[in-house]
Amino acid sequence: MLKKLVLVAIILNCLAGIVLTCMAGEIDELELSKSAGNSNSQRQVQPAGSPGGQAIDFTLKNLAGNEVSLMKDFAKKKVIILVFSATWCSYCVQEIPALKALYNKYNYKGLEIIHIDPKESRDRVQKLVDKYKIPYPVLLDEKGEITGQYKILGIPTIIYLDQKRNIKWRSSGGEQDYEGRLQELGIK
Fold this sequence. Notes:
- This protein has helices at residues 2-36, 70-73, 90-106, 122-132, 145-149, 178-184; strands at 59-62, 67-69, 79-84, 111-118, 138-141, 157-161, 167-172.
- The protein has a seven-stranded mixed sheet with strand order 2-1-5-4-3-6-7.
- The chain is an alpha/beta fold.
- The longest helix has 35 residues, at 2-36.
- The chain has a single domain, classed as 3-Layer(aba) Sandwich (Glutaredoxin), CATH 3.40.30.
């Protein structure tokens, strides 16, 4: 009986993650269409975490327990990809090989990928990093505050920042045109 309850809980958790990811994709498309439709010369203020808005600075701990700041520690990078992800999310884990390849190919050209993991233990996240040999920085959003400030509704959520730390794109994971977007941002 206990095994059946655990199985039901896992299935419900997966379904909730899928629903939230789908909802985030619809919201992202709505935000993109709103910002694309704004053709007048006055720039509207975008909600926090939206394309067209400024990135929200944050300081989080890495797996070694050191504090890392977006604006201070990654100031010299041309482009940053923020990846909001979790160990329990199968879609997030599926993104890791593509992100690793991207990081290995473009990091020396000014790309930084920052994995932000909300509300999970350091040990659990460290196991994921060790298993998949993740080469890019992994930060812990222990209280979920940064995830909330960026209005992350589903994971994985991927946010592209240009060299001025403007949010250029925001999307749910899966089938990303990573290289095309990087080229648009000057990484070749």
